[in-house]
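Title: Request for sanity check on Decarboxylase prediction

Description:
We are preparing a figure and want to confirm that the structure record we downloaded matches what your pipeline produces today. Could someone re-run it with the sequence below and paste the raw structure tokens into this thread? We only need the token string, no images.
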Amino acid sequence: MGALGLVAAFGHVSARRDDRMLITPAIDLARATEDTLLEIPLDASALPANAPGEAWIHLAVYQARPDVHAVARAIPESAFAAGAVVSRSIPPLHGQGAMLGEAVPVHDDARLMRSAEIAERAARTLGDADALVLRGNGAVTTGGSPGHAVARMWLLDTTCRLHLAARQAGAIRALTAEEITAWRAAAPPLLDRLWAHLRRPDGA
């Protein structure tokens, strides 16, 4: 995510592992390795040393969504901009954007997710979507694997930028319910291909 410009000094990725999660520590993601990963119980009442302070949002999503097996937390600038002008949700304007959900909800609270209570509220706003814009605080995406969660973060950045551009151009024409359903049904292999592309060092 660092190479893609989705995080700077802050950002983390996690994966569900039975009743625990593995999460990158509170360091630059480029320095995170398998040996630095932290393991935290999903019902933790406190975070271990060196855990990201916002690990609470990962825990809250896993507790609320048994179908989610990975979470990415990033700060794309486009999410800051879209969250500042959209009050409720961002509809998909292109097929790949539908892989984020029927719409991307916007959580109207710019505070850091540094408590279980604040994180649980954000998880409720996420609902059954696969992406969430945190007004003034970046974004969260989910997936069946860390690669899918990161691919969705890239798609969220694209979706936010397209939405902002379309608002400036005129009336927005969002995808229909049938189009969204069709794209979501096709999502798993497409996310695999996108992740394989994004993780290549040359980006080609």
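Thanks, this matches our download. The chain has a mean pLDDT of 94.
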